[in-house]
Amino acid sequence: MPFTTTHLRLISPLIHPSSPSIRSLVSANTKPFRLSASSAAMDSNSSCMLVLSGKSLAENEIAESLKSNSTLKLPDNSEVSIHLQSEIVKQESFDVELFMNSLATNRFGRLLIWSPRLPSTHDVVSHNFCELPVGAVCVADVQFKGRGRSKNAWESPKGCLMFSFTIQMEDGRVVPLLQYVASLALTEAINYVCSRDGLPCLDIKIKWPNDLYLNGIKVGGILCTSTYRTKKFNVSIGIGLNVNNEEPTTCLNAVLRKLSDSTYQFRREDVIAAFFNKFETFYDTFINQGFQTLEELYYKTWLHR
Ligand SMILES: O=C(O)CCCC[C@@H]1SC[C@@H]2NC(=O)N[C@@H]21
């Protein structure tokens, strides 16, 4: 695995003390309560915090209902506390506003579940698949049971972009191709951010089937799992991309620093929003015209050429 679990220091989000849902977390005479994600990060038995938000009113209503019905569960039934983004006063971690403002999709990424630390984003979306709208995404700053392909563990420290989202398909024959659509959307998202922000182009390539390599070193991977239910394939797509953690190999920002004098840093929020923007376009092409329309670009991005 390319990533280590060193440097797990987390920045705490600040929760609004008047929120009834977090009253239990606030002692009677306290000032605004700072929920310590860092202490949670060190204790795998502690409750997992999920913060929900939506791109528009419709998704915010879904978020409210998921919260008020305590719908979301973890596979091992361990404790989960659910909050709305509107209850978070300040957050120096994943910047939900930045992500939502850059998101330009109709379906994907519009309902966001963010957590400072959880077992696996993939487990959250797969386990709660039927309760979530199609395209819902779960993002974590740190995972402590990150999953890779072939039952490998995916080490998931801070600085790595880690997310999983839901998608539903009717034609099982094309489900295996989804991983290629996702890997292509990820490389194109990185290329888009580079060109938009005037950065040098990074040599980001896909190694078959869906690993991402930067200058010959693995920096990302994709995990697709599916179940068949009521004539539909419920597919969970999980992506790990090392944006800002150099240990033990490399990351986007380390390579960028070598290529450019600028102090620019890739932000996870920019990359994930660009990913969904690309993915939605590619997915529509894939469903309407087949993968062959994307094939040329896919092979152009291949490491194996
Ligand atoms: O083996 C691989 O290369 C695929 C790794 C996929 C890791 C991502 S990180 C976000 C999501 N949650 C997980 O537990 N795994 C995937």
Automatic annotation (TrEMBL):
Membrane-spanning intervals of the chain: none
The BPL/LPL catalytic domain, residue ranges: 97-287
Signal sequence interval, chain numbering: none
Highest taxon, organism lineage: Eukaryota
Similarity comment: Belongs to the biotin--protein ligase family.
Keyword annotations from UniProtKB, A to Z: Ligase
Any one GO MF annotation of this record: biotin--[biotin carboxyl-carrier protein] ligase activity
SUPFAM superfamilies: Class II aaRS and biotin synthetases
Protein name per Swiss-Prot or TrEMBL: BPL/LPL catalytic domain-containing protein
CDD domains: BPL
Short name of any one Pfam family annotated for the protein: BPL_LplA_LipB
Lineage: Eukaryota, Viridiplantae, Streptophyta, Embryophyta, Tracheophyta
Family annotation (InterPro entries): aa-tRNA-synth_II/BPL/LPL, Biotin_CoA_COase_ligase, BPL_LPL_catalytic
